[in-house]
Structures are given as structure tokens and as C-alpha cells.
Amino acid sequence: MAEQVWAGTTYGNEWMHKWLIRMLRYIDVRILYLFVAVFIIPVCLVLNPSRGIAYRYFRRRIGYGMLKSAWKTYVNHCLFGQVVVDKFAMYAGKKFKIEIEGYDIFIELTKHQEGFVQLSAHIGNYEIAGYTLVCRDKRMNALVFAGEKASVMRNRDKMFADTNINMIAIQPDMSHLFEIDQALQDGEIVSMPADRINGSQKCIEHDFLGAKAKFPLGPFSVATIRALNVVTVNVLKTSATSYKIYVTPLPYDKTATRQEQIKQLSKAYVAELEKRVKQYPEQWYNYFEFWQEG
Predict the structure, then answer these.
(1) CA 4, CA 205: separation in Å to the nearest integer?
(2) 118 exposed, middle or buried (CB, 10 Å; 0-12, 13-18, 19+)?
(3) Most Cβ neighbours (<10 Å): which of 4, 17, 126, 230?
(4) Mind giving me the DSSP string for 129-144?
């Protein structure tokens, strides 16, 4: 499909990233938000095909009118730019107010000897969860895009230096699956997105926001191999200086057949994702044709 071209990497080069971090040590993030609001117009709404994808999402899936869909497309890109600024603000040492709903669920799971799976999605700013949901006694292994900029990966390494987090890069040869399997064998946590197909084309279909959509089979297959506990974690921006983390358990019948477990687990994930997308529609950042109707 012609418009499925978004690379999934952070915009800019290493020099730009370094200067952005230096600036953010001294200035308020809201100053850069104003810059983003202007910069977004030519870069994302004129030059980038993501504008059409976002517009169709608001028009067809959320059900807004033409003018409101156009406005929300702009707001969506502005918020995405703010999320990127916030990420670099954290690299610069700034703090955000974080509210966690379901933190007791996360803590209880970390007390168990067996590992568990933590599923995420491309809404809000999931990276903040890695700096907030930290367990000293159980290592978390976060699946990340291998093609991300080197400067971003180095900054993540620095941020994770004082946490018990290990990054597993998604590889074209699927070798990351062996690292995931070993981590779960060792009773650790594995965190991965479950709303984007990467590498393998194995998928499962579900109704999502009123139309059929494909979700990757891998994350649900990994969890059900050992009938592990699964939670979904979504981090949504609630103001210029605050976020809210939602930790939600995903129930499924662990005594059912493997195929039925995958079906139940993926259905529970999609239902929770739909709930959060409806709650924060402007923070959906999947800039490719997600639904089969195009």
C-alpha cells in the first residue's frame, strides 16, 4: 500500500537529538510544544502521508464529521510531537507527574516466581512505563525496534541504567524470539507491543472500532505457551506535565486448548485497547492502514 511508509523511528539526526536534550535541561517543555504546533503543519500535514491515514481513522472509525476529523488530525500530530519532546525531556532529567491505575496488580505479579507478559500498544507514551513500573527483584525485558536511531538507544540505556530493564531488539531473522523464551524460562517479565505486525506475517483478526483489523499472533502465542499471566499497560498523556498509566489484567482460560487461549487472550487485549482508544482518540499513533478496508 502506497501510504504504509512510516519508518517508526524518531525524527532527526544525532546532532539534533543532543541539542534538544541540552535545551530541555533549561527550558519548559511547553515552549517546544509551541514550536511543534507550527512545525507540524508543513512536515506532517502537507509532506507526510500520515495525515490521510489519521484523517480516515477519525472519520471512519471514530465517526467525526469532515471538519472535526481534519482538526483532530492536526491535534493528533501535535500530541505525537509533544510525546517525542517529552521523551527527550526525560533524557534531559525532567520529571512528569505519573498516576498509576492498577499498580497493585503489577506488584502482585512481580512477587510470583514465574514470569509474566506485559503487552503495550502505540497509543500515548509507553516508554514512560519503563521508567516507572520498575521491579528490583524481577528483570523486565522490553522488546524494541532494532532500527531506532543510535542516539535514542543510548539515551534509553542511560535511563535504564538504574532500573532492572533489559532491551531486546526485534531482528529480521526473528532471533529475538530465543531471548524472549529464555527470559520467560528464567521467570522474568517480557514487555512487547501487540498492535503491530513486525517481521512474521502470522496474525489474528478481530473487530476493532467497527471494522476487521489484523493483530500479530506472536505476543499472544508467547504468553500461552506457558499459560502465563498477562497484563496490558497503556500510558496516556493527561496534561503538559502529567501522564496516567493503566495496568489491566487480561483474563483467559488457561485450561482451554492453545488455539482457544490465543483467541480469548487476543480478544481481551483488543477490547482493552478499544476502550483506551475511545477514551483518548487523539493519542492513537499507528500511521499505516490499520484496517483492512484501507
Answers:
(1) 19
(2) buried
(3) 230
(4) HHHHS--SSS-EEEEE
Q: What is the pLDDT of residues 54-73, one digit of tens each?
A: 999 999 999 999 999 999 99
Q: What is the pLDDT of residues 70-88, one digit of tens each?
A: 999 999 999 999 998 998 8
Angle at 155 between CA 41 and CA 238, to 5 degrees: 50
C-alpha cell at 163: 532500573
Q: How far is it, in rounded angstroms, from Cα 260 to Cα 141?
A: 26
- DSSP bridge partners of 118: 191, 231
CA–CA separation, 17 and 37 (whole Å): 19
Cβ 11 vs Cβ 84: under 8 Å: yes
Grid cell 503543519 is found at: 41
Domain ranges within the chain, ordered by starting residue: 14-91, 97-280
> The whole model's pTM is what?
0.88
